[in-house]
């Protein structure tokens, strides 16, 4: 390393130092600490007591809610992520055409993402109200007897997915940027070759934006592992005086992160919650690994 | 680059021995000043949980304390009881006095969050006989008293007299046994042509179903042996009866109906709107009804016993004042607390809230006389007879609450039968309690 390079490295590190220090103190150290706590009985106030693998053993083999929370989380992921990707892609494709008032429509569809998530959640509690909500009113006008949504264990998860679909604006914007990167020359060549709209979509658009789909897929999967705010707000807020509780009805919306929160901050079992967090981390790593290994469908510009 | 150079220069200047030392000395002097001031005046933060006019009244009381105590200045602040307190204690900057719900007291107390007040209470000469029945042991798991009760709530069944008359029932003789309660509930329930519920006669809310377990002769927990006894035949009977009501209404129907209920503390409360003809509720409703539905003609049923020749029982609930671990001035905090819970103050506070003051002496305080003469009398007498009692104090309070409701909900919705559900609940709670005691290191003393 030359003198000049050393100087650059030093300056570079110096400039990155605030972040490096912040990351180590506020992110990396707590992550390491959480691993230690996961092997302890720890209630935050008292000193942690070493109990080895007991937290993990209890969680995996004894906890009656573990599998249920995992199922609820995976349900939200398996149905929620593809749906929101598909919707965002369709919206982006529509907003990538030459309609009038284009920027107006783009703003309108992006707008819900700007509203704070807590406000959106409270709003949707009302939209989904089985008797007074506008969705069931709409269904009733079509002659359909709407479901109980958040009050019905069979419909509570679909109701939450529906709520999430309202906020696809962020994904849509990324898709829109991706769609605008697709070279016009490819479409022109395809039109000359006589390809119809569907063929152009399948053979040009999708492969070209596949890295964007892939990115959104990974982000969506990670987000659904961490899914918490909406479900916490929406299931606590329905009718606390009449037994409405976070994760209800009948535990049908008790997602992993919510159960983790309950253990950490309501049952004061921070060690147990840390163990849950590590299991969640390993699970996300496994799922992301599988997605990466099966990403043959993603095309990068250099390969073409 | 120039600006950057200036920053580096400033940094160097701070590190420079002379300049650095001077500023350090200034800092020291400043903190010194602060200390001198603190010697004469102790400032205490008091986190309370009452908003609106109740909070205003409590803060008036605090102002009165500040005016009469020159050494201590209490700063009240409203907070919503929850994670925030735990975070403040864990972070080492707790308020000096805080408020917690009853089920949190033994859980957080045994976890090391609060200072035991036994010595203070003893020095103040307060003992079991000074309190209303069942209040001394309230919130106490081990022998440690981690808090003092703020004001007490008692539960009863409120019923709408007009609806009784309308359904051809005598509002002067409300149901006195389970069979007639069930029959009344049936006759008061109304459905529209499609079978949708328009009014529910009576539905025990499953989070309070332990009151019915008591009234069927069962109990939840044996304090001596530290064992749950939830799966007893009496409790199974109680839960069977509760579940039968839910199944009669239909759980889907019921949930849709509940979704139409208006806000609790508003004129849209379903009881005022005649959506519920009878309802379990706390004594504060007397004051709520006066504000929100002054024309409502209602009566009170002090629950109903299913056991022959045994008086009915009800629940006592409430909150506690605590001195968190890490409080810098526990003696001053206690000075304030002992003033606040003294009969004169307690009577005034409880009368504003329409709660019951925990100390016997406060009941006879002139400040409480008006309330005592009102319909509150039924509740107070009930308490004095020892018929109202709290949930068992457990170091796993929130866990108990969550699991109890989970299982009760599954039973009421028909996913589980009472005979199967209660043993599951008993097992889960026992396992968690044993684990918690082991981790807290309090198993050995008692086995």
From the spread of the alpha carbons, the general shape of chain A counts as globular
Anisotropy-based shape of chain B:
globular
Distance between the termini of chain B: 73 Å
Number of helices of chain B: 19
CATH topology of the largest domain in chain B: D-Maltodextrin-Binding Protein, domain 2
Largest sheet of chain B: 6 strands, mixed
Number of helices of chain A: 13
Fourth CATH level, the homologous superfamily of the largest domain in chain B: Periplasmic binding protein-like II
* pLDDT averaged residue by residue of chain A: 90
Describe this structure in words.
- The complex is a heterodimer of chains A (304) and B (447).
- Chain A has 304 residues and is mainly α.
- Chain A is built from 13 helices and 2 strands.
- In chain A, helix 3 (66-94) packs parallel to helix 7 (156-165) and helix 8 packs across helix 10.
- Chain A starts with a helix and ends in an 11-residue tail after the last helix.
- Chain B has 2 domains: 42-152 and 317-389, D-Maltodextrin-Binding Protein, domain 2; 154-315 and 393-446, 3-Layer(aba) Sandwich (D-Maltodextrin-Binding Protein, domain 2), CATH 3.40.190.
- In chain B, the strands form 4 sheets. In chain B, strands 3, 4, 9, 10, 11 and 12 form a 6-stranded mixed sheet that branches. A two-stranded parallel sheet of chain B has the order 1-2.
- In chain B, strand 1, helix 3 (52-68) and strand 2 (72-78) form a beta-alpha-beta unit.
- Chain B is globular, with a radius of gyration of 26 Å.
- Chain B starts with a helix and ends in a 7-residue tail after the last helix.
- Classes of the chains: A mainly alpha (304), B alpha+beta (447).
- The A-B interface holds A 41, 43-46, 49, 51, 58, 62, 64, 129-132, 148, 151-153, 238-239, 241-243, 245, 248-251, 262, 265-268 and B 83, 86, 89-90, 107-108, 111-113, 205-207, 252, 255-256, 258-261, 264, 325, 396, 398-399, 402, 405-406, 409-410, 413, 415, 428, 431, 435, 439.
């Amino acid at each position: 390393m030359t003198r000049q390079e050393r100087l650059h490295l030093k300056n570079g590190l110096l400039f990155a130092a605030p972040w490096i220090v912040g990351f180590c103190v506020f992110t990396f150290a707590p992550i390491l600490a959480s691993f230690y706590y996961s092997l302890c009985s720890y209630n935050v106030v008292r000193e942690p007591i070493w109990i080895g693998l007991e937290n993990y053993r209890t969680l995996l083999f004894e906890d009656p809610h573990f599998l249920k929370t995992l199922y609820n989380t995976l349900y939200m992921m398996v149905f929620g992520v593809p749906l929101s990707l598909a919707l965002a892609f369709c919206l982006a494709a529509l907003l990538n055409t030459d309609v009038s008032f284009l920027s107006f429509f783009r703003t309108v569809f992006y707008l819900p993402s700007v509203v704070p998530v807590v406000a959106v959640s409270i709003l949707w509690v009302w939209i989904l109200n089985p008797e007074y909500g506008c969705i069931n009113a709409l269904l009733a006008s079509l002659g359909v007897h709407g479901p109980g949504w958040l009050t019905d264990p069979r419909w509570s998860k679909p109701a939450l997915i529906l709520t999430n679909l309202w906020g696809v604006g962020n994904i849509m914007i990324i898709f829109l940027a991706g769609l605008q990167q697709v070279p016009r020359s490819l479409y022109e060549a395809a039109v000359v070759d006589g390809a119809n709209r569907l063929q152009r979509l399948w053979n040009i658009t999708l492969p070209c934006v596949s890295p964007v789909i892939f990115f959104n897929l990974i982000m969506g999967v990670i987000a659904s592992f961490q899914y918490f705010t909406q479900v916490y707000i929406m299931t606590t807020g329905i009718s606390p005086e009449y037994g409405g509780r976070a994760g209800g009805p009948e535990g049908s919306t008790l997602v992993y992160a919510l159960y983790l929160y309950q253990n950490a901050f309501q049952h004061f079992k921070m060690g147990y919650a840390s163990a849950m967090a590590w299991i969640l981390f390993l699970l996300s790593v496994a799922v992301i690994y599988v997605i990466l290994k099966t990403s043959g469908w993603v095309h990068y510009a250099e390969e073409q | 680059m120039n600006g950057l150079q200036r920053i580096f220069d400033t940094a160097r200047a701070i590190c420079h021995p002379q300049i650095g030392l001077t500023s350090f000395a200034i800092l020291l002097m400043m903190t010194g000043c602060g200390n001198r001031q603190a010697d004469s005046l102790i400032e205490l933060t008091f986190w309370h949980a009452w908003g609106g006019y109740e909070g205003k009244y409590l803060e008036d009381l605090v102002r009165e304390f500040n005016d009469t105590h020159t050494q201590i200045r209490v700063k009240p602040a409203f907070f919503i009881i929850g994670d925030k307190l735990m975070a403040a204690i864990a972070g080492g900057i707790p308020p000096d006095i805080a408020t917690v719900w009853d089920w949190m007291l033994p859980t957080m107390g045994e976890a090391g969050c609060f200072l035991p007040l036994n010595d203070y209470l003893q020095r103040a000469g307060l003992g079991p006989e000074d309190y209303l029945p069942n209040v001394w042991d309230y919130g106490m798991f081990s022998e440690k008293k981690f808090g003092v009760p703020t004001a007490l709530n008692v539960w009863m069944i409120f019923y709408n007299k007009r609806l009784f008359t309308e359904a051809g029932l005598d509002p002067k003789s409300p149901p006195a046994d389970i069979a007639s309660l069930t029959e009344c509930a049936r006759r008061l329930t109304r459905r529209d042509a499609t079978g949708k519920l328009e009014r529910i006669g009576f539905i025990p809310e499953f989070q309070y179903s332990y009151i019915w377990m008591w009234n069927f002769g069962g109990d939840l927990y044996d304090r001596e042996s530290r064992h749950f006894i939830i799966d007893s035949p009496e409790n199974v009977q109680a839960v069977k009866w509760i579940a039968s009501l839910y199944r009669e209404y239909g759980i889907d129907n019921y949930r849709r109906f509940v979704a139409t209920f208006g806000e609790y503390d508003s004129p849209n409360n379903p009881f005022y709107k005649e959506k519920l003809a009878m309802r379990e509720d706390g004594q504060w409703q007397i004051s709520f009804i006066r504000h929100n539905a002054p024309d409502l003609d209602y009566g009170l049923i002090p629950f109903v016993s299913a056991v022959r020749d045994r008086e009915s029982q009800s629940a006592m609930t409430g909150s506690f004042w605590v001195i968190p671990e890490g409080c810098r001035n526990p003696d001053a905090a206690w000075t304030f607390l002992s003033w606040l819970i003294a009969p004169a103050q307690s009577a005034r506070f409880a009368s504003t809230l329409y709660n019951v003051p925990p100390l016997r002496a406060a009941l006879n305080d002139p400040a409480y006389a008006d309330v005592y003469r009102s319909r509150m009398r039924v509740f107070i007498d009930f308490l004095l007879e020892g018929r109202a009692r709290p949930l068992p104090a457990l170091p796993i309070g929130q866990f108990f609450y969550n699991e109890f409701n989970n299982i009760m909900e599954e039973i009421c919705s028909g996913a589980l039968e009472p005979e199967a559900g209660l043993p599951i609940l008993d097992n889960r709670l026992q396992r968690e309690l044993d684990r918690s005691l082991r981790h807290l290191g309090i198993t050995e003393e008692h086995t």
